[in-house]
Amino acid sequence: MDKADKSLVILGSTGSIGTQTLDVARMHGYRVKALTAHRNYRLAEEQAREFSPETVCMTDENAYRELKTRLADTDIKVTCGKEALCGTAAIPCGMVINAVVGMVGLEPTLAALNAHNRVGLANKETLVTGGELVKAAAAANGVDIMPIDSEHSAIFQSLMGNSCNKIAKIILTASGGPFFGYNKEQLKSVTMEQALHHPNWNMGRKITTDSATLMNKGLELIEAVRLFDVTPEQVEVVVHRQSILHSAVEYEDGAVIGQLGVPDMKIPIQLAITYPERLPSCSRRLSLFDVGTLTFERADEETFVCLAEARRAIAKGGTAPTILNGANEAAVSAFLDGKIPFYRIGELVCACCAELPHTSDVTLGTIAEADAAAREFTFHEAERQI
Ligand code: NDP
Ligand code: MG
C-alpha cells in the first residue's frame, strides 16, 4: 500500500463507474495497470489499446476468447474467470477501484485487501453481503476502503476533522427515483423504459432499477451501517429530489454537516483516488442560484417495500442482508429480461426474505449458500407467475 503510487486496477472498467474512473485517470495521468469486464470485449479492447494495461480479465468465457484474439498483436495478458478476477484485484497498485455490479464483487474486494491494496469501493453489494468480512480484512491488513457511492463519499467528507466527535445520526439523501409520489396501484402499470429513466443520474441498468424501487437506498442504508459503525436507527432516509445535498452527518451538539455538489460521479470517484488531496476536475460547478430550491420529504416505505425490507434485513443481521441482496439481484435480472413487471420486484424480495431462514454465522461459505438459495427461490417464484 503506497499512497504516492499513481497506479490503478479497475474492476468493471466498461461500466458507468468504470468509464468515469478512466476519465479521471486520463485527466490526472494515473497509470492503469489492469482492467476487468464481463462481456463487453469491444469496449475492453478500446480501453486496453488506449491505456496499455499489463492485464485485462474478462469473466465471460466467449468474451475472453474474442478479446484474446483481438489483442494478439499486443503484450497485454488476457485472462478469464472468477479466480483471475481475484488475481487481478491482488496486483500491487495504488488503488483497486471495484466497479463491478452485484455480489460477484465481494471476493475480489477481499483479494485486494488481503494483498494490501487500498480499495475505492463503488460495488455496494460487497458491503451488504460481506460487510463484516470486508471490515475485518481491511483492519487485519491495515488498508483503507474509500467510499465511491456519492452518499457515502458525502458522509465520509462530512466526518473529516471530526474523528473525536460522536455521530448523532446520518442523513442519507435519496432522489426518490422516477416513481416518487406513485401509489401501489400506479406502480402496477409502469414500463421498463420509465424505470430506466432516472431523473438525475446516468447509471448502469441494475442500479437504475434499484433506484426506482428504492432498494438502492435500502442497500445504501446497510452500506452506511457497515462503513461508519452506526446503528440502522441512526440512519435517516430523506427524499431530496434535486440530488444536490449528497448526504450529511448530525453531531451530538445538533450541528449538521453535509456535502453539496452537482450530481456527477466523477467528483466522488476522483476524491477516492486522490484523497486527501482535492484536484481540479472537469465537473460542472454548482450554482445554488440555478438550483433555487432544495426540498426534503419522507420516503413512502409502504409503497416502496424494498426499503422497509432492507431495514428488516439489517436488523436481523447475519446472512439476512445477503438473502435480501440475492433475491433483489435475481428479481431485477428477471425484470430486465422482461419476465416480470416492475412491481413484482418488491413482492419477490419480500417473499424471499420472509421464507428463507438466515444464520448469524457469516463466512464466505454461508454467504454463498444464502445467496444461491435466495436466487433459486426468486427465479422459481418469478417463473411460476409468468
Ligand atoms: P454497469 O452495469 O454500468 O457496469 C458494471 C461493470 O461490471 C461492467 O464493467 C460489467 O462488464 C461488469 N460486470 C457485469 N457483470 C459482471 C460479472 N458477472 N462479473 C464480473 N464483472 C461483471 O454498473 P455501474 O457502473 O452503474 O455500477 C457498478 C457498481 O457501482 C454497482 O455496484 C452500483 O451499485 C455501484 N454504483 C454505481 C453508481 C453509478 O453512478 N453508476 C453510483 C453509485 C454506486 P460488461 O460491461 O462487460 O458487462
Ligand atoms: Mg448512491
Distance between the termini: 51 Å
Portion in strands: 5-15%
Low-confidence stretches: none
Number of strands: 11
* Distinct small molecules: NADPH dihydro-nicotinamide-adenine-dinucleotide phosphate, magnesium ion
Average predicted confidence as pLDDT = 97
Overall morphology: globular
> Helix count?
17
Radius of gyration from CA coordinates: 20 Å
Main beta-sheet annotation: 7 strands, parallel
Order of helices and strands: EHEHEHEHEHEHEHEHHHHEEEHHHHHH
| Helix-residue proportion | 40-55%
* Structural class determined from secondary elements: alpha/beta
Biggest sheet: strands side by side, in what order? Answer: 4-3-2-1-5-6-7
| Total domains | 3
Please give a structural write-up:
The structure is a single chain. The chain is α/β, with parallel strands linked by helices. The protein folds into three domains: 7-147, 3-Layer(aba) Sandwich (Rossmann fold), CATH 3.40.50; 149-311, no CATH class; 317-386, Rna Polymerase Sigma Factor, Chain: A (Orthogonal Bundle), CATH 1.10.1740. Helix content is 48%, strand content 14%. It has 17 helices and eleven strands. It has helices at residues 16-28, 41-51, 61-70, 82-89, 106-114, 124-141, 150-159, 184-187, 192-195, 205-213, 215-228, 266-274, 288-291, 305-316, 320-336, 344-355, 364-384, and strands at residues 7-11, 31-37, 55-58, 77-80, 95-98, 119-121, 145-147, 167-174, 235-239, 245-251, 256-260. The strands form two sheets. Strands 4-3-2-1-5-6-7 form a seven-stranded parallel sheet, with helices on both faces. The longest helix is centred in the C-terminal third of the chain and has 21 residues, at 364-384. The mean pLDDT is 97. The structure holds NADPH dihydro-nicotinamide-adenine-dinucleotide phosphate (NDP) and magnesium ion. NADPH dihydro-nicotinamide-adenine-dinucleotide phosphate (NDP) binds at residues 12-18, 37-40, 59, 99-101, 104, 122-125, 149, 201, 203-204, 206-207, 265. Residues 149-151, 220 line the site of magnesium ion (MG).
